[in-house]
Structures are given as structure tokens and as C-alpha cells.
Design goal:
17% of the residues lie in helices and 37% in strands. It is α+β, with helices and mostly antiparallel strands and 76 residues long. The strands form two sheets. The protein has a three-stranded antiparallel β-sheet with strand order 3-4-5, covered by helices on one side. The chain has a two-stranded antiparallel ribbon with strand order 1-2.
């Protein structure tokens, strides 16, 4: 994933396999992630639900069924 860090005016590359914590909060249009070698991050906006589902799909690729992440909870 390539992200622009506006406060530092630079681009950073983050790898999905470096995610150690992943918390989508769909009703707030936010995604909170922690990485092995990067500060915690909050992504927000209308693409968060799609990005959350895509990230779960990537993280589940190749995992046995008992180790897969659960599907996203839908807001009530």
C-alpha cells in the first residue's frame, strides 16, 4: 500500500503482511491499523468499507480456514 503522509510531505510503502492489528469501524467510516515498523494509523473516508474488505481478503489469502479473519460486522 502506498500512502502519502501529508504532515511530512512524503510517500511511504506499507506491506499488508506487516499488519499486527486491524480494526475497521465501518459506521464511523474509519480503519485503524498497527504495523510492525510504523506508527498506528487511522484511515477515514468513503472508501474505508471497500478497503477493509479488500484488506481482509488479502490477509486471508493462503490461510487455513481456522486461521482466517472473520467477515466484517455490518452496522445495525
Amino acid at each position: 500500500m502506498l500512502l502519502h503522509v501529508a504532515a511530512e510531505n512524503r510517500w511511504v510503502t506499507l506491506r499488508h503482511d506487516e499488519i499486527i492489528s486491524f480494526l475497521p469501524v465501518i459506521d464511523q467510516w474509519a480503519l485503524f491499523t498497527d504495523y510492525q515498523q510504523w506508527e498506528p494509523m487511522r484511515l477515514a473516508g468513503p472508501t474505508v468499507p471497500w478497503f477493509s474488505a479488500a484488506t481482509i481478503s488479502v490477509l486471508n489469502r493462503g490461510r487455513p480456514d481456522h486461521q482466517k479473519l472473520p467477515p466484517l460486522p455490518l452496522p445495525s
